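Section 3.1: Structural characterization of target chains.
Under the original work plan, the team committed to producing a structural model for every single-chain target entering the pipeline before any wet-lab resources were allocated. The record below documents one such target. The sequence was received from the expression subgroup and is listed exactly as submitted; it comprises 319 residues.
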Amino acid sequence: MEWKDVIPVLAGGFVILVVALVVKPALLGEPIGFSSPGPVPIPAPPVYVPPAPSPTATPFPEDGEVCTRTFRWTAIDGGVQTMQVRVPEVLFLEHRETPRIGDRLAWGRYAIADADRPILEDLARRIAPPAANPEEQYFRLMDLVFFVQQIPYAPDNSTDSYIEGVLPRHARQVAGGVEYQKYPVEMLVDGKGDCEDAAILMGGLLDALGYDTVLLGYSDHMALGIRMEGFNPYYAKYTPKYFTYEGQHYYYVEGTAFTRENLSTTSPVIRGRPFPIGNTQGSPIPSVKSETPQVIPLRCIPTPEDYRIRPVRLPAKGA
């Protein structure tokens, strides 16, 4: 073989060597040059992230006594639900030792008490978890309303309304009986309450979910109003009742929702069924049908009725 025949063969081999050692690794992102394969890295196993547990009870400090109450109630779909609520005993006792406010224009502050807020937020989200579907969200809202409505009714003058079996020391004697409006967690621990207690508890729960609510005060009753736009459910066999406040419509929501009999006794007979939003037709309370209620915002700072701004007289010249 002549040199002129060998040179093309050597050139071809060199080209193949360059492609194998330089061009191919560059294209594939491999290291250039001669190297031993070495150990093949083993990928780390995926890290297991357990799903977030569903909340089962109200969070509370583990270093204190707790008041636990279990509620059984019927949801809007007819199913019986069980809900447990746990309240720090120190919070409950603090509320019991807090004097009550006589002016009902300030009763909304009970519903939005900061200390009760974590408990109400937890309970509200367990009863009515967020839903993307507006219709489903409405039914979950009704579940929360029905939950409060099915808490047994007991008047303020009944010792049966209090877990201790006696009237709280800050219960006030008023014309016609006793007045003691409860903080939301008080009603949850007692497991009973009257109309303003139910309205305050329902207002606090709905406020925790972001709903705009007001208290509706009648001469002998208290209910809740919830702001809704264009509320006119197609399935309702009643005309939804609402009241206008600062240009907004607040629809009537009954807090107790059960027929109450023998209110003068310590153990009133309670019977009936829950009432949906806006329904006042079946209310057994005459004032609800005949009166226009006083609208009481939850966030309100009342001023004394006799407060007047008087001009200050300037001192005489030369004084």
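Confidence is low (pLDDT under 50) at residues 22-57, 259-271.
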